[in-house]
Structure formats: C-alpha cells, structure tokens
Amino acid sequence: MDPFAIDRRRFIGFVGAAAGASCASFASAFAATRRPLPLPLIMLDPGHGGLDPGCIGVSGIYEKDVTLAMAMSLAHDLEASGRYRVRLTRSDDDFVALFERVERARKAGADLMLSIHADALPEEHMRGASVFTLSEQASDREAAALAARENKSDLVAGIDLSHHTAEVSDILFDLARRDTNNQSIRLARDLVTELGRRVRLLNHSHRSAGFAVLKAPDIPSALVEIGCLTNRQEEAQLQLPAYQRKLAAGLVQSVHDFFNNPTRA
Ligand code: ZN
User: Fold this and answer.
1) What pLDDT, in 10s, does the model give residues 112-151?
2) How far is the CA of 18 from the centre of ligand 1 (A)?
3) Residues with CB under 5 A from ligand 1 (ion)
C-alpha cells in the first residue's frame, strides 16, 4: 500500500474542515492527508464468550471456543504479514456486550472490523462458511438512533459533528455512513471470493442483517460465519489446525485485497 495514500478517515475529516472552515484550516487539513500513515488497525471480534457459549455443536463444542481460537490464529497471521496492527475485542473467555465490542473498535480507531462466528443451521446437512454485512434498513435505523442518542455531538470518522450546523452534520454523517456501507460490501465480496477458493461456502454466502457488532457508522465491518457446528463433518474440520490455517489464509488474503484496492466500487 502507498504509505502516503489519502486515507478515508482523514479525507472525510478534510471534507468536514472544508465545509466549515477558513482557508488556513483547509490547507492544514489537506497537508494532514499527505503525512505517512500508521499501519491499518484491524479489530478482530471473536463472537460470544464467558456466560454466553454461542451455539453448541453436535458433539458439544462451544462456538465461543471455536471463534476465539480462530481469532487468535488470524491475529497472529495478520501481524506476521507486517502490514497491520491487530487488536481483539476479547482475548480470553470473557463476556463482552455487543455495544461494548463496537465501542472498543471505535475508541481504538480501527480501520476494519471482522467479527468471527460459527453457524447453527436448521438442517444437519447444511454447511459452509458465509459472510454478513449490515442491512441498509438496519443501518438507517441505527444511524437515526445514534444521531438522536448523541445529539450529533459524537465524533464520527474523525469529525466532531458538534462544530457544524445541523444540515452540514447530517450530510457529513450520511457521507461517512454510506461510504462505510459501501466499503463493508466490498470487504464482504473479498471475503466470499477468498474463502470460496479454500473452503466450502453456504449457498447464500453473502447475506445482510441487523447485527449489533456491524453498526459502527465509520468502520467497514463484516461478520464471518466460519462454518457450521450443527454439521458433524464441519464441526470436526473446524477443530483441525490444517483447516483453521486454510480459513486464516482466506481471511488474511481478503484483508490484503481490501487494502490493496481502496477505490474499487
Ligand atoms: Zn455466533
């Protein structure tokens, strides 16, 4: 990645400065877009934990243990690539509330969030990995709720919305949220492509829903169901280091693809 590339967070901040500011702050905001960037920060979110086991596999394995093992292995591989900083929303068997997971990602300034889960499907023969992004409807609802809750004084994508008129902050908030949704869809496509090259996918491999952990308005996010614990064969595979390495390779390559082509629609 070009270390001087204009990153989206600073660019949105730049637009924000331009919308309400003098020539001097316009110039300094533009200069800030040309500073070398720190490595992108990836927030990995192992689903469930503590009192919440998640789904329970046919042989009794807990989803919370499968997701933590996968996230730890993925964190290692992403860091080993030398291209990213990585944090986890939990690194032990702890219960972390859903809103708290999003807050941890936003406070850390994450550039990308991947939530890791394992599926439970109604028919035992159903199996395969799949990817979720936030549905547009859920996104609209969440945006309205966040705007009401924070009274538009929250920092979104590096912009302090309280410095702008209601009209300008509405536009900026919407700009950030729509851009984030588009980036999340692009991320999901990369995930489906790269996982599909290595492991079996569910028939409907990219779906959308109102998952709470996908609701950060300024962090591209996807939720990956790495396989299905209600299918005996896949439950066994998910515990094999060789299979976990295949999944991790697909997830790492998806993150590379995402950052290698930031302007793809
Ligand atoms: Zn889950």
Assistant:
1) 999 999 999 888 899 999 999 988 776 666 556 655 554 4
2) 42
3) 47, 54, 117
- 103 vs 117: CA distance, rounded Å: 19
Q: Ligand 1 centre from 69 Cα, in Å?
A: 14
Hey, what long-range contacts does 166-169 have (CB within 8 A, 24 or more apart)?
A: 168/19, 168/20
Distances (CA, A) of 161 to 5, 138, 168, 190, 233: 25, 22, 8, 32, 50
Structure tokens at 165: 């008129």
176 Cα to the center of ligand 1, angstroms: 28
Give the global pTM: 0.81
Say how many Å lie between the CA of residue 65 and the centre of ligand 1: 11
Per residue in 31-46, pLDDT tens?
Answer: 555 567 799 999 999 9
User: Distance between CA atoms of 89 and 46, rounded to whole angstroms?
Assistant: 7
Pick the CATH number of 38-260 from 3.40.630.40, 3.40.50.1480, 3.30.2310.20, 3.40.50.2300: 3.40.630.40
Q: What separation in angstroms does the CA of 62 have from each of 96, 116, 221, 232?
A: 16, 13, 24, 13
How far is CA 102 from each of CA 64, 110, 130, 218, rounded to the nearest angstrom?
A: 18, 10, 21, 11
DSSP 171: H
Please tell me the distance between residue 74's alpha carbon and the centre of ligand 1 in angstroms.
17
What proportion of the chain, given as a percentage, has pLDDT over 70? 76
Residues of the chain with CATH 3.40.630.40: 38-260
Rounded to the nearest whole angstrom, what is the distance from the C-alpha of residue 48 to the centroid of ligand 1? Answer: 6
Cα of 119 from ligand 1 centre, angstroms: 6
Ligand 1 centroid from CA 81, angstroms: 27
